[in-house]
Amino acid sequence: MPKITFSISLNPNSPQVGTQVTTTLNPSGAVGQVTYQWSRSTSSTGTFTAISGATSSSYTPTATDVGYFLKVVATGTGSYTGTVSSTLTSAVVALPSDVGETLGTAMAVSFVSDSFTTTQKIGDGAYGNKDVDMYSITVTAADVGKKFTFRTALPAGGTSVDTYIRLFNSSGTQLAYNDDDGCSLYSYLVWTPTAVGTYYLGVSSYGNRGYNPSTANSGAGGTTGDYTLTITR
């Protein structure tokens, strides 16, 4: 049987701490007949050093990888031959600071052209699977009567999580909620404010949906994973 050559690509190419970087082999039949070695360098043109223990088809950057460029070298076995190197990723970046857990520590939403987007992780805070990400939204007189939409989605290269979103007034009274958008385990909510004030959106996993918005670590726990939150008005 003749030996077969193969190629390799990475996703995502802009990695951040805690987000898994995966490989794709072409042809797909090479899976299981290839060995891997991940390496890193502080410069895209510098010397790459093997990362100890990083010998699987995927790699999840840690805090010690921040500022480093990554690549993986795959070596064929069995029916496949040769050694191929992936293209380089961009330098690994740190995970954004954890969003506050409560009404009092919420992240303020700043709209740009009536839109706000952030990518975060459920489970990156001090409370593990009881993590809640709380956002504060200031509604002005010009916003009253406008339609606000809140949507979570799976970011590229992220780990899926069943999100649950809850909307509160300034007293912590729940005004609305949503579990799934009808197409995935991510969430979608439409809301039209009737009064000015500060409102809060909490993002958690489904299992942790019963938390107290005024008290950190108050829920029952759930799953962890990544989401991109988009708010429009």
Features:
mainly beta; Immunoglobulin-like; Jelly Rolls
Task: Map the helices and strands.
Elements: E1 7-11, E2 21-26, E3 34-41, E4 49-50, E5 58-59, E6 69-76, E7 83-85, E8 107-108, E9 115-122, E10 133-139, E11 148-153, E12 163-168, E13 174-178, E14 188-191, E15 197-205, E16 225-232
Parallel strand pairs: 8-10
Antiparallel strand pairs: 1-2, 2-5, 3-4, 3-6, 6-7, 9-16, 10-15, 11-14, 11-16, 12-13, 12-15
Q: Main β-sheet, in a few words?
A: 5 strands, mixed
**Helix content estimate:** under 10%
Q: Provide the gyration radius in Å.
A: 22 Å
Low-confidence stretches: none
* Tally of separate domains: 2
- CATH-derived topology of the largest domain: Jelly Rolls
Oligomer: single chain
User: What is the CATH domain class of the largest domain?
Assistant: Mainly Beta
Question: How many helical stretches?
Answer: 0
Do you know the CATH architecture of the largest domain? Sandwich
Envelope shape: elongated
- Mean pLDDT value: 91
Classify the secondary structure makeup into a structural class: mainly beta
